[in-house]
Write a structure and sequence with these properties.
Blueprint lengths: L1 E10 L6 E4 L3 H16 L8 E11 L22 E5 L3 E5 L15
Antiparallel strand pairs: 1-2, 1-3, 4-5
Length: about 110
Amino acid sequence: MRVARLLELRAGDSDITLSVPLAPLEEVRRRLHADHLRRFGFAAHALAVVIEALRVEARLASVDAARSPSRKLRPRASCRSGLRAWFGAWREVPLVSMSALRAELPGRR
């Protein structure tokens, strides 16, 4: 399993966040300023840095059935079809298995 810990940072009063790997503060600032310069064309050294969110991603490498037939993943029969999540208000949202994703999912506004 690969786990990534990312800070969603914004410079000044910008509405746009940049993802920077969690690291010691000076390295985070250096990375933010380099990414900001590359993306927006100007340095953000004079702007206040705001931590908008902390994001953690955990990914399990897919299993190649041809190489590892004993490690085939089987769908769980008891998988929930949905749950409640907060998007400005509580909403019922469907759960979709990663293996079932083939295209865009329909959504609502």
